Amino acid sequence: MQSDLRAALRQKTRLATLGAAVAKINHDLRNSLSTAVLVSDRLADIDDPEVQRVAPRLYDAIDRAVHLCSQTLNFVTDPRPVLHIRRFALGGLVTEVGQELASEGSGSPSQSGPPVLSNAVPADMAVDADRDQLFRAVSNLMRNACEAGAREVRVTAVSEGEAIRLEVADDGPGLPERAQQRLFQPFAGSARKGGTGLGLIIARDILKAHGGDLILARTGSDGTAFQISLPARRDAKKGSP
Fold this sequence. Notes:
2 domains; two-stranded antiparallel ribbon; disordered C terminus; alpha+beta; 6 helices; 241 residues
């Protein structure tokens, strides 16, 4: 018991240190991103088909990074994100996440390229949610699968009454038992060397703020699947439920 208590205290100290560090670098990081915005704006004046093709993705990535920095201090002081609800197609969001990861070449260092990303979400399935926050949650799950060494990541979704259940499944090696036991503990739940384990915690906080949840559906030698649950409809208003 004393050993567990000391470990918990060390973890809380590390989290407090992390929060202070994030707060300090937030200002400088925003300045760097502002410079990137100015440079990217100049791309709009370049009359090159390839530049015009990739520029919108660059703009979107920078916009998300700026928004993430804006939300960082709020997350440090209050882990419950403020939501801006609107209705949108869930499949389109999954496609965007896949495109971003593919453009980054996300994958395990031992692989020659990124895994195949399969989007099986029905085209007509829509959800009321904060699109940026949900993008962040789904991106964390898919990125984890890529970095774990999966050759394929498949995203499916079904409607169940008043809820939507979205599953992110991969064909990777599965999670070790130690990682399963500490899955949602910061700095302890990562299955990857050097990982912080914060991605899953952030994703679950986002889903809980929506009135949903994130759970480990299954894991084994044939792969891992995480399940997201979300209310299908809710009032389009700012704030958490």
